[in-house]
Amino acid sequence: MNKDVLLKLLQEVATGTQTPQSAAQQLEYLACQDLGYAHVDHHRSLRKGFPEVIYGEGKSAEQIAGIMACMSSQERVILATRVDAGKARDVQGRFPDAQYHPEARMLVWSSAPPPPQGRGTVLVIAAGTSDLPVAMEAYITAQVMGNQVEKIIDVGVAGIHRLFRHREMLASASVLIVVAGMEGALPSVVAGMVSRPVIAVPTSIGYGVSLGGLTALFAMLNSCSSNVAVVNIDNGFGAGYVASMINRA
Amino acid sequence: MNKDVLLKLLQEVATGTQTPQSAAQQLEYLACQDLGYAHVDHHRSLRKGFPEVIYGEGKSAEQIAGIMACMSSQERVILATRVDAGKARDVQGRFPDAQYHPEARMLVWSSAPPPPQGRGTVLVIAAGTSDLPVAMEAYITAQVMGNQVEKIIDVGVAGIHRLFRHREMLASASVLIVVAGMEGALPSVVAGMVSRPVIAVPTSIGYGVSLGGLTALFAMLNSCSSNVAVVNIDNGFGAGYVASMINRA
Amino acid sequence: MNKDVLLKLLQEVATGTQTPQSAAQQLEYLACQDLGYAHVDHHRSLRKGFPEVIYGEGKSAEQIAGIMACMSSQERVILATRVDAGKARDVQGRFPDAQYHPEARMLVWSSAPPPPQGRGTVLVIAAGTSDLPVAMEAYITAQVMGNQVEKIIDVGVAGIHRLFRHREMLASASVLIVVAGMEGALPSVVAGMVSRPVIAVPTSIGYGVSLGGLTALFAMLNSCSSNVAVVNIDNGFGAGYVASMINRA
Amino acid sequence: MNKDVLLKLLQEVATGTQTPQSAAQQLEYLACQDLGYAHVDHHRSLRKGFPEVIYGEGKSAEQIAGIMACMSSQERVILATRVDAGKARDVQGRFPDAQYHPEARMLVWSSAPPPPQGRGTVLVIAAGTSDLPVAMEAYITAQVMGNQVEKIIDVGVAGIHRLFRHREMLASASVLIVVAGMEGALPSVVAGMVSRPVIAVPTSIGYGVSLGGLTALFAMLNSCSSNVAVVNIDNGFGAGYVASMINRA
Amino acid sequence: MNKDVLLKLLQEVATGTQTPQSAAQQLEYLACQDLGYAHVDHHRSLRKGFPEVIYGEGKSAEQIAGIMACMSSQERVILATRVDAGKARDVQGRFPDAQYHPEARMLVWSSAPPPPQGRGTVLVIAAGTSDLPVAMEAYITAQVMGNQVEKIIDVGVAGIHRLFRHREMLASASVLIVVAGMEGALPSVVAGMVSRPVIAVPTSIGYGVSLGGLTALFAMLNSCSSNVAVVNIDNGFGAGYVASMINRA
Amino acid sequence: MNKDVLLKLLQEVATGTQTPQSAAQQLEYLACQDLGYAHVDHHRSLRKGFPEVIYGEGKSAEQIAGIMACMSSQERVILATRVDAGKARDVQGRFPDAQYHPEARMLVWSSAPPPPQGRGTVLVIAAGTSDLPVAMEAYITAQVMGNQVEKIIDVGVAGIHRLFRHREMLASASVLIVVAGMEGALPSVVAGMVSRPVIAVPTSIGYGVSLGGLTALFAMLNSCSSNVAVVNIDNGFGAGYVASMINRA
Amino acid sequence: MNKDVLLKLLQEVATGTQTPQSAAQQLEYLACQDLGYAHVDHHRSLRKGFPEVIYGEGKSAEQIAGIMACMSSQERVILATRVDAGKARDVQGRFPDAQYHPEARMLVWSSAPPPPQGRGTVLVIAAGTSDLPVAMEAYITAQVMGNQVEKIIDVGVAGIHRLFRHREMLASASVLIVVAGMEGALPSVVAGMVSRPVIAVPTSIGYGVSLGGLTALFAMLNSCSSNVAVVNIDNGFGAGYVASMINRA
Amino acid sequence: MNKDVLLKLLQEVATGTQTPQSAAQQLEYLACQDLGYAHVDHHRSLRKGFPEVIYGEGKSAEQIAGIMACMSSQERVILATRVDAGKARDVQGRFPDAQYHPEARMLVWSSAPPPPQGRGTVLVIAAGTSDLPVAMEAYITAQVMGNQVEKIIDVGVAGIHRLFRHREMLASASVLIVVAGMEGALPSVVAGMVSRPVIAVPTSIGYGVSLGGLTALFAMLNSCSSNVAVVNIDNGFGAGYVASMINRA
Fold first, then answer.
1. G190 to chain F: nearest residue by CA?
2. Which of B209, C131, F182, H89 is the most buried (most CB within 10 A)?
3. Gap from E173 CA to chain C (nearest CA, Å)
4. pTM of the predicted structure, to 2 decimals
């Protein structure tokens, strides 16, 4: 439920176009609609400035589309993460103008371009080519939330000079998202070069004692650079979201 | 090395008061002074806007004082973390105006009050009384770095109405630091109520499967609220530091 | 072996209709029938008030049907858990009136409706839509065991007001089952609101450091609310069973 | 805040002895008193039928006594857990009639004996002599909460006939608490013999791969008996509390 | 290389039928034949009384058959473990009289029945129906190695009276192999009833915190009965082998 | 309760010297004497051929002495493990003829030398000097249980020729106990050289990823030699006990 | 970028055949070519004496071929690891003279045989047949990097005499790579026999507590032989690479 | 036993000064002297070019001195690691010319300076001041083994320019030892800059998810630089030893 819908309703009450009772019912309905398998949280746009995001894993295409239908009357943009290609196709059957980003496994539906926001640029950096999908999830999330976003891919610490070529882009970013698997060393090095917050995203890329991303995660939490905070393994969406919150004016 | 020292040096070069050669030597010396047991990173103030912070664990009082002596000619403020009372007393023997915060185990020396910075208030919230030391480490760090800081203590989820009394203080904060041990649930609840970034700090408070804070850490990384990023267990300093970066204008 | 069968047998002995020797043989046979691959525990109804439940994982459809055949002469109800759709179809070939619940992967056969029991209502709460299958396993188990059961789905802590709408239903329940994955925070919050026992069920929903449900499990065991006890990850059946035991008059 | 205090207050409002405004202030004050280091939750007696319990670990004797002082005006009984002998002595300096149970490390203060409650007997069983402290924490908790409690000590599965001697006491209990370390097998065996809920408490007794109680905990969560729910390692208090909730009429 | 082949060779040397040089070459050849992908250890029969056993996992059918061909000239019996049905069929194409045990995933070839050995009976006990495959691996191994073997299936601790019916069979066994998954409690109970060594075999049966058998393994290693030794998870073969060693006269 | 005591009692019943009723009472009493903090299992000698062993960890000197007093009237030998020097001294104050083995932390009291038993020699091998205490616990246990025992110390795999010097002693042993920390490789090598059962005992010797003995334990459970069974970390007593069971005629 | 290409460029600058500006552009281009999904590090040959190696896991055949195309103009040899048969076929469609080693899952393209280097022989030893693929990855890597390489397969510690037959080959090697799964004991034994560095490679071969190779890894890191260093689980490539670095003259 | 002692003995045999029989006895004696608590491996100098090193942890001062006495007649140098100051003082009572290095906890006795060996310089790099003790253990080990050694301390990745100042020293080293705790990122960065083998040593410096050094260890094993091999946590000695092996001509 975005703010405009709410204001309009309250103005109708103020002007007597609508009784308080009927408005209350609508508010109740809007705030928290129970679909049986889901309680859609229409208030989230109001509380947090961005609507609820649909986590696609473990939901059927039908459930995803059902929640989208319920939200689409109230919201300007709907984001669904962790949606595989098959489910995406099924949902697009019902929402043909929803856009699917296969590399990031995200589905985006919007009735209007996001109003620009953010104090500066969000910069997404990935250590290796294999980290690309997670980096793209962060990239698209930040973009959909109205930020100016840029990216640098495959600049891992084994050839650290590749990173140094981009020193200016690093210095000018407002928030940095650094995505890395294996030993997870890149966020420490990047954070040591800038005076802005760095959101580190460990990925499950690697084998043996990469332990499905735990090693990169723990390394990032132990960063000897202090301007680093961390999100869950492969959680590109969360990184994009929190970076967006930080970048808000 | 703060910016003023650097500018003065370069102006002397520009005006011919000093040869480029002698300036280069000083810069080289200043940038990275080798104490034998430590390379003091004088450039960090320039690069990151705050000088290197001394991690006290595993360093002798003598080493801490040595690094402080080396920094004090260049910096306005020096912060040492994880300093126990005994070491603190020894260091204060040499730096009598250094202030010791026993509950946070921090030592702060400053030649001038920090210039105010920050767009808004940093709010520190602790789930329980036992989480107080970690919360205070975050509180003092953010304060020393020039932020307006406030705190709420002992509002854990077992009596969630205690948190709701402070709803306005939550809504008005610019960045929130939420400190919790045991099941680490508080950051999710807080983050669900605000539209600002939340830095979650797990603590090692608990027993059995609290696993020295791992359970709280993992819970926070799995937060179903998306505006949460996490730092290492008991890392109040890191939380204060990154919150400060976020809050910078 | 339900109590009636036993009493009838003993009365026959008492009235001389049957010799003690023949009765002993029948009891021996009934108590513990060896199928080669299974020892059916016919005494369990007597000892525990509900017959043995068939754990379907790792058993063939033929083994499941074999055990059901052996039990069906003695028991009013048979429950099989963790039965996938294929096996269920095969078993239904032999027990056409067995009912399959695909979302809960349970197979229920009964010759009569369960006699109502229980002091009050068992309330099943699930944090998210993805937790539905585990919640349904608990729901059906409690129902089959003769309880009045209700449910609330998708009221996770990221929008805690969704839960508060149901405050009365919470307050009036006799036992609560709370199902959650990811950070597993919901049981603490629910338990803080009621004065009845809460059975917490962690689910394997999540990724990265959800660790297949371990994080939710550990969080629940560390609950700062004291009226919480926990069962194994994804163990909806166990939660329904123990809640049923608690609810018994 | 117990119910009597609340009713008296509301009756005074009803009869005009007190204005709604002054009553509201008192309620506000009573509900959630902020001591600086703690928010005392005076409403908990109302919500949950038993006041907040003080977790002594990581709190100073002064903090414990401070919270007790704040509670003692409102509550009939105060319980503090994980209090070592030294702290206990210090607190008793201020509350001389508080009773200390050294084996359970609990401090109990009460202004009146607990009103009897509970439908039947709570039975505490411990596998070995070394599990006694945890068993006693459960025992005293259940007793203080108004239950009839009994106990059986050192009946581990290596000599299972020792347990069978007590078969009748098992059968007649309303709720059973089973405490065990090492391989944690006792709850499964006990639960197989009764038709009532069993609360299993793993202890940290053992060495090597007892892993500080994790092995016993995991074994109990995997119990092949279905009427078992589990609390945290060494959490005798939680077991006594939840058993008390179950036993309530 | 069995003892008879060796003796014959040495007698030929003693009687001059063969030169020491040619015998040495044969011995060298026989002792350790290098197939490129495997060094067949023909000496093992001599050193250990039973030939090398082929671990089928990660070997192709061709490699298995190659090693069998190399062994079959020297040995009376060949055992291959962890062979799936497909590989077994392929190997049987070359060794038609090799017998496949699908439930135990073992392939046995023998040119003669095993000479009876062993001081008494090896008894294999399995806690549940799902543990049957591992139990059968132990059963067949012990049988092939010349022991008298018996078995009891599905006598888990949730209905411990099922075990007690077999008390005499337990008491008369020379060595006991106890197979259990989930909480792994059965070996402790069995071992408490007998005065003979018990070999405990954890299985990977279970879910959640059964942790793929780790919980059962750790529980067994922590057994409060002292006459228990343990082998790896699902290692029925190893249990049968070591039981056979123990049972040897 | 040893067999002689039992037979004497039954003969008195047979000859009428004692009524069945009084004998039953004595048996009841003897079988399972309840000390409040312990249920002494007097039947264990009968069931298992060796009396209950007192696990000293977490028991007071007084409790140990109390159990010993209760056992000493019935048994020829009493063994207490994990008893530190201080407790031992206290117990010896009451049992002056109890012998303390400080390196093995064991207390042994016996009224007569153990009757010789065992088919052959039990051989205890330790990889390093630091493994000596655990090896001695195994050595003394086997000796007290009536076995012929020998030992070889410090023959780790880094200089494997040291082991080969003792080849004959290895070949002639009836059961082998192999004690090793760090990488735990010695049992595999020893077991590859003999045709008898090997009981492997991991120790907590090592640092870093020795993980308190877990690495040695897991290595031993993964032994590529099949005649290896394993006991808990540092469990020299268990190894000596199970070896004794194996060695029994 | 090999040294010849660089020198030629610089000589053209020196002789005026090319302007410094154009050379700089080429160098910039060559050093770090951005393919969008990868930054090819052409400088690596210069810095490290061997070009960047393509890690195939998580890259598409198209991406692999793209990087190869970019490298092939500059380098004499290209190595791609962890390439499955399907991807290999696709890449070979574009690079028909690339050679695929299926057992090692490696793809090698070279325009010329590697110039011989290395002070002596690199010897690869594998404990079992199942460790062959990892051993072959090490073997081919070392060979492609210009070393003389030899190998011994299936000489595990259960029949340690198989290893001793090859004592001379061990003594004459310059660097040894020892590959083992399960208990990972072989490197300790080998290292105890030689005075050269041993690179240990744990493999994921095994089951149960082999923990996907963690047990072998930890055992190797705890080796009681001091001339052992370790690489990641299944990392045959890394072992071959580091051995090659050691063997360089 | 160094080579000279051996040659002298054999020459005496060759010249008839000594009978083969007496020489054999001496060799047997020298090779493997049994002290009761230790088998001194006098052959190790011959086999490996450096005598056995005494691991001091878990050995008494008396045992250490006993082994030293036994070695001192045969060896030119004796090294004991993990010796605390107290034990060192006791050993020095008997070996007054043994030198103790408190920061590295090592005791070194030598009858002559080590003969120089090694192809080039061994360079020891430590990420932080707190890693100094482990770095010094590596430094002294390599030095005692006859290498030219240099060191750089406190050049962690948070200020990576501090490392770059030493680029030439890095490029000229023959082997590099890189010591780091926390996120363990330094070896990857260093290895990316050189073409020589890097031995990485994780330290237990850090807190929270540094997990006692496991995080640094796992990060190093996952290094995206291929010329890295790793030793156990805090194992400075092993790193110095293996580097020495690599550096040998």
1. F158
2. F182
3. 20
4. 0.90
